[in-house]
Amino acid sequence: MGFAARTLVEAVLGPAAIVDPDGRVLVANARWRESEQDGPLHAPEGTGLAGSVPGCAAHAGMINAVRTLTPGTPPVVLRCKCAASGQQTVRISHLETDCGDYRRLVTTEQRVVGPVDTNADDAAARAKSQFLALLGHEIRTPVTAVVGMVDLLRALPLQQDVREVVDGVHRSTHALKHLTDDLLDLARLETGRLNLDRRPVPLRPLLEGILEPLQQQARSKGILLLAALGPDMPATVLGDPDRLRQVLTSVVGNAVKFTEHGEVIITAAREGDGTYVLAVSDTGPGMDDQDRARVFAPFVQADSSAARRHEGAGLGLALAARLVHRMGGDIDVTSELGKGSEFRIRLPLEPATTRKADGARPLAGRRIAVIAPSPRSVQALCWLLETAGAQAKPTVLADVVVRQLDVDTVLWVDDSHDPEANRRVDTIIEAVGPTGRALMISTTDPRTGIVRKPGVLTAPLVLKRLVAALNLERTGVRGAPITVPKLAGGRVLLAEDNDINRNVFRRMIELLGVECDAVPDGAAAAEAVLGAQPYDVVLMDLQMPGTDGLEATRIIRAAGNATPILALTATALHGDKERCLAAGMTGHLSKPITLPELRAALQPYLSDQAPVVEEAEAEAEAEQVEAPAPCVDLGKLRELEEQLDDRSLVVTTVNTFLSQLDERRSALSDALRRRDRNALRATAHTLKSSSALLGADPLASACARVEQLAIAEAGEQELATEVAEVERAVAGAVQAMNSYLADAGRAG
Q1: How many Å apart are CA 618 and CA 190, to the nearest integer?
Q2: Which of 225, 231, 397, 459 has fewest C-beta within 10 Å?
Q3: Rg of the chain's alpha carbons, rounded to an integer?
Q4: Domain spanning 634-747: which CATH class is it, in words?
Q5: C-alpha–C-alpha distance, residues 344 and 14, integer Å
């Protein structure tokens, strides 16, 4: 053994040795060598550990433990009574060298002869976990400061080589912050200080919400990302939604990370009375028996070669397993090398309602053939369709079989690695005949050409998007577009953190004949404006995470850049206009804004006409004082359809809004419970902005009141009253938007 092994054993305070799987001592520290005369336990270097000694449990089990200990299993602890100086505790732990060889670390601890302290090991473990928790807190404080300072650095105009270094620090500090959070949770679990909530958990929004942050990574690899509930699943169960989300995010995120192509499927099904199984299957590299044995061990990745390709400390699955056990369940994995893995999480959940998931049947009477890469994805898609009332028929990809099926639609999952995808789609459409339809689910990046074909839905799939796409594809009816003259070209930078608003605004700008680049925060906006690409005008949201719109404007102006900047805000607070002008902005627009208003705001900066921003603002503010609206102003949604000339985009946007609504509502309640006014304000602001855009005026107004009360540091009771008002407005908005989606499906 080399210098590193010698250093390791010398660092142990008590006697310690490294042995091979046959029990031969390879290297020992000075304390071990000094104790060689103290009974037969401490064998010299180069010799084997002593065999069985009558009456001694340690010697009876020591050799067997050394030979059978596997990676990922906890250390074996034995009690030895042979030592002349008293009782010793023998601990045998698994080691793995850089070369992949297995070794054992054997340590002993001297104890005074007397009654055995059976709680000593537990006390030591608790002390270790308490130290880990304290260390995590101490690390997180400076890490948070570093994250903030790096964000400030990224907002400055930097040379390219310096920016690459700063971006690297940014990625590393965020990874360290996430690792610290996981360590704290692990420490809380081991010390018994992690409490669980018990409240209603809507299952479909929970599963579908986990897919959203992973969609870009999945699309870049061509992975089908899909979640489905089994036919016997209740709509809502009682549990801790935050911890369930944490467990599933770890497992699903791990599956997407290690899967290079194919699919990642999440399903939920009943298994006996009171037991539910959440299964996550993938087509990743798979694992052998040895890797499976240690997959839930902390700080371990199943494949050391994969660990070099993928970031991570190997803590996510270990934490997920402990959380599952804390919730009274269990988790296991089945896997085969080269064919993928399936993680199964069994939990004793109690239905919060007897209502089955998604009682509405918007696809009733539809007959749909399903073609997908694997039996698992076929089953999941069939579950989705049957939930919505359709008759789903698993199908093989052959023209003659498709023609023989009595179906009105073929639902087909594109294989992103198949270069003949376009031709096969055309063949399927032809096969179902002139009265039928074919809808392809594309797993590719939306920038590729194939997803622009009619009848193509991009993954990840959520039920409402799938239903809307199938209904739209069946009718193909569109409303007459609103006529708005195009502008004379130009390029606009849009800075908006809300992905719903960002997609809609970008589409509106492009409809005006103007090129649009979009960024999600102020730091990226400042970087873009100060970069090589010139912009005619910037649309800047005021409230964004990290660097907000005002600070980004100050950075741009401090660099001597005079590009016109128009503020976008949904607050309508007194003094907004003055703050914008003081920061260096050119004008101010209040959201929501219509396509004609947007054209009027942009036109002065793309032509020689005088600015009319103030008029556009006045018109927008005039709309805000109209009589109280219903839960959702359906006229505003239809107007948005006409402005965008794309009903499917509005339907998709509404579905996205609904899929995020439960998470936003939970975040609002959680912020109120934690008395976190900053989080309360930020969450209310984000929800208000999206609600106003989609015509949910009562919800937007309720969120605005919460936001203003949080800013004014109002009392807890007053805040709780307004948050409850948001809950009521959410219920009304959900009902109205579901009605809109059903009407859109019938009308096309």
Answers
A1: 59
A2: 231
A3: 31
A4: mainly alpha
A5: 41
CB 49 within 8 A of CB 32: no
The string of pLDDT tens digits covering residues 135-179 is 555 666 677 667 767 767 776 777 777 877 787 777 777 667 766
Residue 159 to residues 153, 156, 303, 557, 609, Cα–Cα distance (Å):
12, 10, 38, 18, 37
Q: Does the pTM exceed 0.85?
A: no
CATH class for the domain made up of 367-475: alpha beta
Q: For residue 200, what is the enclosing H or E element? A: strand 199-202
Condensed to tens digits (0 to 9), the pLDDT of residues 39-90 reads: 556 778 888 876 556 556 666 677 778 887 777 667 777 777 665 555 667 8
Letter for the amino acid at 620?
A
Lowest mean pLDDT among 312-326, 334-348, 525-539: 312-326
**Residues sharing a CB contact under 8 Å with residue 314, sequence separation 6 or more, in sequence order:** 297, 298, 299, 300, 301, 307
What is residue 84's DSSP assignment? T
Q: How far apart are CA 130 and CA 20, in angstroms?
A: 33
CATH homologous superfamily of domain 199-351? Histidine kinase-like ATPase, C-terminal domain (3.30.565.10)
d(CA 733, CA 129): 46
Please give the Cα distance from 463 to 236 (Å, whole number).
16
Asked whether 550 and 580 are in contact (CB, 8 A), the reply is yes
| Cα dihedral value 550, 551, 553, 558, nearest 10 | 140
Q: Residue 87 is which amino acid? A: Q
d(CA 571, CA 727): 20
pLDDT of residue 290: 79
Other C-beta atoms lying within 10 Å of the C-beta of residue 709: 20
Would you state the pLDDT for residue 61? 72
> Which three-class secondary structure state does DSSP give residue 696?
coil
Homologous superfamily in CATH for domain 3-116:
PAS domain (3.30.450.20)
Same fold, 367-475 and 491-622: yes
Q: Give the start-to-end residue ranges of the domains of the chain.
A: 3-116, 122-182, 199-351, 367-475, 491-622, 634-747
Strand 565-569 versus strand 537-541 pairing type: parallel
Architecture of domain 491-622: 3-Layer(aba) Sandwich (3.40)
Beta strands in 247-390 (DSSP E): 262-270, 276-282, 330-336, 340-347, 350-351, 367-371
> In whole angstroms, what is the distance from residue 504 CA to residue 466 CA?
20
3-state class of 66 per DSSP?
Answer: helix
Contact 266, 229 (CB under 8 A): no
User: What's the CA gap between 469 and 476, in Å, rounded?
Assistant: 10
Assigned token pair, 129:
């976990």
**With the C-alpha atoms ordered 726, 731, 734, 736, is the resulting torsion angle positive or negative?**
negative
Instruction: Name 415's bridge partners.
Output: none
The answer to whether residue 610 scores a pLDDT higher than 50 is no
Amino acid of residue 595: L
Give the model confidence (pLDDT) of 651-687 as tens digits.
888 888 887 887 888 888 888 888 888 888 888 888 8
**Two tokens, residue 79:** 């009690």
Distance between CA 635 and CA 697 in Å, rounded?
12
Residue 613's pLDDT band (cuts 50, 70, 90): very low
- What is the per-residue pLDDT for 358? 53
Tokens coding 463 = 């039920």
